[in-house]
What we know:
The complex is a heterodimer of chains A (about 170) and B (about 70).
Chain A: H1 3-16, E1 34-39, E2 44-51, E3 53-58, E4 61-65, E5 72-76, E6 79-84, E7 90-95, E8 98-102, E9 107-112, E10 115-117, H2 123-139, H3 143-164
Helix pairs in contact in A: 2-3
Chain B: H1 4-7, H2 12-24, H3 29-36, E1 44-49, E2 52-58
Organism (chain A): Gigaspora margarita
GO molecular function (chain A): proton-transporting ATP synthase activity, rotational mechanism
Family (chain A): Belongs to the ATPase epsilon chain family.
Amino acid sequence: MSFFTKVARTAFNIKARAPARWYATEASASTSGLRLSFVLPHQTIYKGVEVQQVNIAATSGDMGILASHVPSIEQLRPGVVEVIENANATKKFFVSGGFAIINPNSSLDINAVEAFPLEDFSPEAIRANLAEAQRTATSGSSEEERNIAKVEVEVLESLQSALGSK
Amino acid sequence: MSFAWKAAGISYLKYTQICARAVRNALKEEQRLIAQRRDEQGLKFAKWESGKQGELKPIDSAMGNVSV
Lengths: 166, 68
């Protein structure tokens, strides 16, 4: 039996059974906006709230998420998550890290370890901690201590610039 | 896709914990006190050998490396 008849026969048989495979449906024009759930292990900041846009600091770059965004999973770097609820209300949070999951149904889940509004931070504490971390990063006693300090320097510098450009 | 912390030998979990701790310590006074309570780990462990419990050691949240 030639290859083509074999394939044609199998194709015919498949058509007779229930479909075993689905293809992605086209994204329907969403009438609703972006649904945001922004949660921490110990606190829920937003749960299923409709917002206009969310700007996140992902490891792959800064992104602005609107409704009907391409589905994606993004790792967040320590940085600012900006929630634009509507034209008048914008809230900024500094996030220590986590993940943002953009779902096909225009819902966005942000899971972070720690997140606080920018007003909750103390610039003096940041300056002091940054100075100490920079010191340990160069003159720490063990490789591990230095690496930990380098991570802290990165986080604190990002925090400092977030507060600076408020 | 290689990350800086992976190259430095730190796991992702430890990396996120370090970042979280750095953020907590940068807060204003009252927020910080509440947040730092989340950092404490009251976990202790002891190695058992031939039926006898060894020394009870706490897990240090700062370093996190458990040396048995």
